[in-house]
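The records we work with from here on pair a chain with its fold. Taken together, the tokens spell out the fold as the letters spell out the chain. To see the layout at work, look at the sequence and tokens printed below.
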Amino acid sequence: MRIEFENKLIKLKDEFSRKDVSTSELEFKINNLLHQNQDLAVENDHLKHELARLEELYGSKIHELESQLAMETKNFEETTLQYNAEFEKFKKEGQEYVEQLTFEFDRKIKNLEEKNKQLEMTRKVLPSLLRTW
């Protein structure tokens, strides 16, 4: 029985030794994972600070560019309105000028037609007048 106890004791010591090694390995892994976790936490904090810095740096730049774009858009719209108004003015002036030219042309045509009629009548009447003389 003693031998049996000694064998059991040896088996238990062997099992305890294996569990101790397993425990040591697990503790090493836990410590390694804790260290990796700390490294990740430090890197995460660093990235958060970098993100905040970039948001501040580029956030103001984006705001500045948006303001500039809004101002340029407003200027473009105002310029477009001015050009449209000027175009309409020139268009109206051009139409008025064409209407005036058309009116004068029509008047001159009528005058020339009248003169032509008078010349035709004179040409018809002139030979008879010349005969009577």
